[in-house]
Amino acid sequence: MRTATALSLVVTFTVFFLGCASPVAAPSCRSGETETGHQPFTHARVTSPSGYVSAVFRLSDAEARAGSLCLSVELDEQPLAQFRGIGVQTLETRTNTDGFRVVDVQRSRHDETYAIPVGKTSQARDRYEQARVELVQQNTGFQISLVIRAYDDGIAFRYLIPRQAGHQRITLVDEPVELVLYSPHELTAHVNRFKDFYSAYEAIYEHLSLDAFEKRDLIGMPVLFEKQRGPWFAVTEAALINHAGWYLRPDADTPGVFHGVLSPLPGQSMTKVRAPLPHRSPWRVVMVGRDLSTFIESDLITNLNPPSAIDDPSWIKPGPTTFPWWNGYVVGDDVGFEPGLNTAMMKHYIDFCAKHGIPYHTLDGIDNLAWYGGPILPYQGDDITTGRDGLDFQEVIHYANERGVRLRIWMHWEAADLHMERAFPLYEKWSIEGVMIDFMNRDDQDMVAFYHRLLKLAAKHHLTVTFHGSYKPTGIERTYPHLLNRESIYNLEYNKFRDAGVPPQHELTVPFVRMLGGPLDFHQGGFRGVAPEAYEPSYLAPKNIGTRCHQLATYVVYQNHLPMIADYPAAYEDQPGLDFLTTVPTTWDETRLLHGEITHAVTIARRHGDTWYLGSMNATEPRAWIVPLKFLGPGMFTAEFYRDGPRGIRAPDELVHEQRTVTRGDTLPVELGVAGGQVVIIKPAQSR
Description:
Blueprint: E1 34-36, E2 39-41, E3 43-47, E4 53-59, E5 69-75, E6 78-84, E7 89-90, E8 100-115, E9 123-137, E10 143-151, E11 154-161, E12 169-174, E13 178-181, E14 186-189, E15 191-192, E16 206-208, E17 218-219, E18 223-226, E19 232-238, E20 246-250, E21 257-262, E22 273-276, E23 279-280, E24 283-289, H1 292-297, H2 300-303, E25 321-322, H3 324-327, H4 343-356, E26 360-363, E27 365-366, E28 369-370, H5 393-402, E29 406-412, H6 413-429, E30 434-438, H7 445-460, E31 464-467, E32 483-486, H8 504-507, E33 529-530, E34 544-545, H9 548-557, E35 564-565, H10 569-572, H11 578-583, E36 590-597, E37 601-608, E38 611-618, E39 623-628, E40 637-644, E41 655-662, E42 667-672, E43 677-684
Parallel strand pairs: 25-26, 25-35, 26-29, 29-30, 30-31, 31-32, 33-34
Antiparallel strand pairs: 1-2, 3-4, 4-5, 5-6, 6-13, 7-12, 8-9, 9-10, 10-11, 11-23, 11-24, 12-22, 13-21, 14-16, 14-18, 15-17, 18-19, 19-24, 20-21, 27-28, 36-37, 37-38, 38-43, 39-42, 40-41, 40-43
């Protein structure tokens, strides 16, 4: 978001009695006893296929709320956290989240491998054990099913609400599940200090103790829970469809307890979701791992979404795009025309794209003026099929098509909502590649429905989609693979107008928190690096903190299928590193974390075909680590390096470009200074 100004088989689970570990807030969750057929039901354990991760379902006893639903998460039989009070409160049935009894438990397993057209891996394995617990509330007769899945990298649960006697629809006023930690942790997350639900998830990640919150703070997801000794876990949601976005709110009196909160409908405070029955919630997800590689390499969020709705995705082609809004439409030299949001400027960028093999150019706005005329904010109804005065939209389209460059079109979401039924068929006719939709800044049920409506229409007309000013990713890219990107992140646009800019510590947090949800747009590509102490904001031609190789490394470290080349053409011509930006792949066959220290340092390896790309980034303290190359196959390989120059941050735009031969038995030393970076391209020697 810019600122306007500037696979299934039946399996039997053993059911037995289990006591509870004692969490931080000491919840009472000993098993209540109900009847399932002729067998007394106490609890069900759902264990992942490899046996590492378990979800343990119970009914709580009278010390808590009789018949409330409890679900504990374990790794290697060690409890990590517990959800209690699972369920919903509805207006029609006046349902609370207690007084339930179990009427049936159905158990199954699934194992399927499916293709991902655009992603961090080209195939994903969806393998889990599942229990579906059928419940009825004794005093109201309200029915609900709790579906629990255990994967090797986490657990997920959702509730299904069938048609109820006398009720065809349902109104959710709350989903008051509590998350309770079993031992002290710290967390890293986006925290909404404005204490409302109007958010684009664009804030610097905070690393906080459990007692560091103010009353009414909202924690956006994904949220990473960590401690010095023991496994880490992350909490988020997946498959947000016809529902409201989910947040956590810290308990004001008990550190380590968090309350689930749904985003209300516009103009409402109590009403969160209105839906016909049957209705299903999104998945509530806990990603679990012994180390950080589990989180980076996981396909859990993707697996939990419906299969692709696009039968033939061959028209979806990720790739880089120019994006002049970031640099402020600077030209940097005498180009023979007046810079600005005009036809000549667009042709200038299209020529640059054609010369360097950049497939896309984005038509955007300048200051508070949209390319289609009128202010960006507030949107006043302007037509998104014609350009403003001085910008001949049809001439720009023709010029781009002649030169093999395709346009991407930015617009305010209200403009899309008003005009897309008419405009999107025209965009397809004119060979426009895709759209960037901005300024939603909400995740209530109505806005979620807008996202899905737009994605369906865009797919019909072969348009890819990027969301800016957007809510968190929940894996719908599996269903709609033409959704290439979204923001939901504090990114390099803030170097235009924030005193703190985008510090390296934040950049080194992004892979371990935001990227757990899916791909992200980060406004990359600025070639003016500075040391942290030398940074100052600039709306025109902004600078980035760190070396040029630090910037190049983001194109490998971050999962970004439509990365920006966001600086102006003259800033790139004859500059070292441009060749990398224009040739680095934007979709991948395999991803591995080779080194990870949250907020400090990272090396991520991504494979495209038979070539590996390794991106390394460092924050504000010099660091050195070793990367084994045992993931390579047999034989000899050529390793091509982009390294920081010998003066490091003192000469941030210098880089060293060199090659050497390596094998899978070798290791690569990584030695990075302040805000440094390195990229290595490794390919079989015979392919040279």
